[in-house]
Amino acid sequence: MSELVAALKGALDYTRLYRRQTFVLKIGGETLGNPRAVRNLAMQVALLDSLSIRLVVVHGGGPQATRLSRELGVPVEIVAGRRVTTPAALEVAKMVFAGQLNVELLAALRRQGVRGVGLSGVDAGLITAERREKVTVRDDDGNERLVDFGEVGDVTAVDPTLIETLVARHYVPVVASLAATDDGRVLNVNADTIAERLAVALGAKKLIFLTSSPGLLRDARDPSSLVTFASPEDLEAMLASEAISAGMRPKVEACQRAVQGGVKRTHIIDGRAEDSLLVELFTGAGAGTMIVGHREAEDYREKEL
Fold this sequence. Notes:
Number of domains: 1
Shape: globular
CATH class: Alpha Beta
Strand order of the largest sheet: 5-10-2-1-13-17-18-16
Strand content: 15-25%
CATH topology: Carbamate kinase
Distance between the termini: 32 Å
């Protein structure tokens, strides 16, 4: 019992710091594909919600879209961690992202008493995008290729009015990774990018990626190579050395852009690990990788000395 009391006292400073602040949580498809992890995550979200933290959830669903595509005979192509979206693949994305996964996540939150509201970037002009032009990318084999990503969008504008209205009334928006052009053309948009752009637009205190990795690893094959703290310089060096795998690269780049856009701290943790979100937020040791901007990095290091 004394350990429990000590833990509650230790969390008091954090709860004071976080109250009425906005956190954006991005949940990966690997986490959503694990029913136990979803139940545990819903309980953690319920606890944060009870502490008057303003929460916005963004989710992807890559593994589920890949599985349904193969069941329907729709070809799957992923280059440098990003999905090539043909018109048929876009129909799959609509079914999986804004349909199955969004509803299942809302149901898990409802079981914990969380008032979730399902959305996509199409709702109320939340996310405006334009179709991506052909781009040259370095693929997983290290070769440069000119790629047409198809029905994929690059974000051009964010209107957070609807989100702000919902969180002010104690709802938790759950946003699927679809957006639309000004003339209503639906596009598939990377969920990491949507989470990052929303975090910046909302002035979020934290942007947290819940992934299938323990955090940012110097060697993707070695969990013991976890990077617990990283500055922009650290990330630039790792990206230049190609130490970051293709699937992790969009998340790291999103973290970089978020801190440059004013988000105080960003985190990459394993969403499948028991209570990883609470451990990351309420303990000094954390549960994964924390990425901050230049000024925050200096402040953090000074406190550690």
